[in-house]
Amino acid sequence: MVEHAVETRGLSKTFRTRHGVRTAVDGLDLLVPATGVHGFLGPNGSGKTTTIRLLLGLARASAGEMRVLGRPVPQELPDVIGRVGAVVESPKFSPTFTGRQNLDLLARAGGLPRTRVDRALEQVGMSERAGDRYQAYSLGMKQRLAIAATLLKDPALLVLDEPTNGLDPAGIREIRELVRSLGEGGVAVLVSSHILAEVQQVCTSASIVGRGRLLAQGPVESLLGASTTYRVRVADPAAARAVLERAGWTVRPEPAAPGSTGSTGSTGSTAGALVVDPGPEPAHRVAQVLGEAGLWPDELTPLRPDLESVFLDLTAEHGLAGGAR
Ligand SMILES: Nc1ncnc2c1ncn2[C@@H]1O[C@H](COP(=O)(O)OP(=O)(O)OP(=O)(O)O)[C@@H](O)[C@H]1O
Predict the structure, then answer these.
(1) Where is the composition biased (Low complexity) (predicted)?
(2) CATH T-level assignment (fold) for domain 229-304
(3) CA separation for the pair 146, 140 (Å, rounded)
(4) Mean of the per-residue pLDDT values for the chain?
């Protein structure tokens, strides 16, 4: 088995426009592992769709090399495309045909056995609604049928470009669960999104891009880094702060979340919450130091950065503040 489902080196794509040359992809070294779900993350206009189009032979690169399932593309694309499923643009389904009839047509056109249709419908959780007309489906169901169509050929790599675009929260959740189960089923999934926090929940690894350039890449755990800070909520934050600082730790008041009125719903008010960084010391030491001073914490929560905050830090660091051009 190949180590990487997708590998690019120095991949670049420029477009000539009325306003001059526009660089959509800028020396991209992309590595997508052969298993799991890989998030291809970046704001609108960061070059994700262009990269995917280059990989699938839908556009021609200006420079660089690409491999898909170990084979150089576009040179050997005809040999691998049969094992690559992709949902890049809205597929053309017949609105008056049922979901199953649409897939039957595609299977026949591709010379694939009809048993694949049943399997694909089952994989995307559409078996029960397969007899309904396509035009009666919700957007989420249409998207699931599009994914089912790509599963007909039993792909080793599935490429999904912004699969949750335009979906409501329930539809987003459905697609998220589907992508997760496909990844667990052994298909390498490359899923692009500009909603970083959303994709974080299903990805095992990710590449973060900004303005066509790679900003970070690797397992999600390592992108997020090790957590060393904790949210501490106590009745007397000023006294707690003094005690924690005396222990030699960095302490700051927790900034209020944008638009928040001081309430975080299930955890209650964060007014007076502190963020403490005890360095290599474990959480129970924080509780112990506070307890010894009679300041028992009501909350002690590890604070993990999410991909969104990692991305914002990266774009600021690379002078790309604002993300999309
Ligand atoms: N055919 C084209 N001609 C000119 N410029 C283009 C063309 N296709 C893409 N671009 C530009 O290239 C840049 C990258 O676009 P691309 O669609 O790849 O980004 P993206 O990350 O997929 O964004 P989105 O999430 O909005 O789809 C943008 O500035 C876009 O305007």
Answers:
(1) 257-273
(2) Alpha-Beta Plaits (3.30.70)
(3) 10
(4) 87
